[in-house]
Fold this sequence. Notes:
Layout: E1 2-9, H1 15-23, H2 26-33, E2 37-45, E3 52-59, H3 68-72, E4 87-96, E5 108-115, E6 127-134, E7 140-147, H4 148-158, E8 162-167, E9 172-173
Antiparallel strand pairs: 1-3, 1-4, 2-3, 2-8, 2-9, 4-6, 5-7, 5-8, 6-7
Amino acid sequence: MIYMVQCALGPAQSDADWDAWYGHMKPPALLLSVPGFRAAQRFKGITQKPPAYLAIYGIDSPDVMTSPAYKAAGGGNFLTEQWKPMITFWHRMLFDGADMAPAVSDDEALVVLDAPAPETHATLDFLWLRSVGLDQPTPWRGLAVASLSAALAAVEYSGGRLAAFAPRMRRIEQPGT
């Protein structure tokens, strides 16, 4: 099962501030303190305005999201008063269809397609995930890994249907995952 958190900052906020607060703290803390979190990787949108941030976690089941350990780690409501007015949107999403999202290396991009149903694409091979919980802003989300140039070309050709994200951190995993 895959858990995703996606948000965008307002124009007055900086990547450095967000990374200092969320980026180096949240993904490792969840993997270390919440049973059922198995992997994490963070991204920043490179084709959206304003750029969106995306964190993708591999989790064992939906029960992880209601566990005392997740709640104690701030899960579901960890936006501090400092950040709430600075974020333009915030979505928490649960998807089935894969145990883990594909790892994306520094020279690649993650291409995302939200759709009412899975579909084929001329140049990208999407892993299709069905929305099963939390905010559910889309019924299906496709993920594809591509070279940066291929991702940018696909996004441009799509007329705005696709979004590309660059890794902000390498994927980290629980030992034995």
